[in-house]
Amino acid sequence: MERFILTGASRGIGAALAGALARPGRELWLSARESPALTEAADRAVAVGAAVQVRPADQARLDEVERLARDLLEVPGPVTLILGAGLWPHRCEHVEGGLERAFVVNHLAPVLLAARLLAAGQVTRVFFIGAGLMIKGRFDEDRTPAGRDFSSWRTYCDTKLCQALAAQHLAGLYPDVDFGVTHPGVVRTDLGARPGVLGGVLRLVKRKWETPEACAARLASVVETPRWGDLGAAGWWFEKERQAWPAPADDAALRDRVWTITARLLDERGHGL
Question: Is residue 273 a part of any domain in this protein?
């Protein structure tokens, strides 16, 4: 039986991808914050014949990510891990002892979950749902983790760049595991939703964007490809096409610096890698 773990499964691309991957002979382990939407996503997958387990967890809380990792150790291997939870914030919020919320959700949480399951030898493939906007990202080790350089536009880019760099580092640590990172497309979800006039304009613009279901159908075909990356190296997928890594994410010195800071921040909060 094929087994998939999918975070961010309650809405948007994640919920649609759960449906696109669901079929008889597959087992899906779906996670997101506990909500009726997560239950509904699971019910839709069951309706088309998949075996489904639900494991709620808030990706903004590292203690819940640790609990989720422990719960997922019961999943028989081999497993494909799809890290789909994401946040595009419109205001700066702090969690986990002063860390900026999107930095935790988009970067620290998926890295921690992947690291725990990789260390257990459980997963054979790890797929990060990233963002092409990472090319606009920057990383300031003294400012970015705490949101001191917060921007309602660039923080999303910054944290997705950190995620991509960490994925590449993990691929080097686990050369026998297949790693991929994707830009899924420009999709009509509530990602980046915000109040006020700007929020209204954004909702109007999004009407012309691709539906989550159309994106998920394409994304499922990428998930099902035999190989995403090379041994010891994560592959970068722009929608359905594998491409060379863009320059900001192909900086070895920056990759090492991001990993060093990531490991330090997690260790300081009792979640050492």
Answer: no
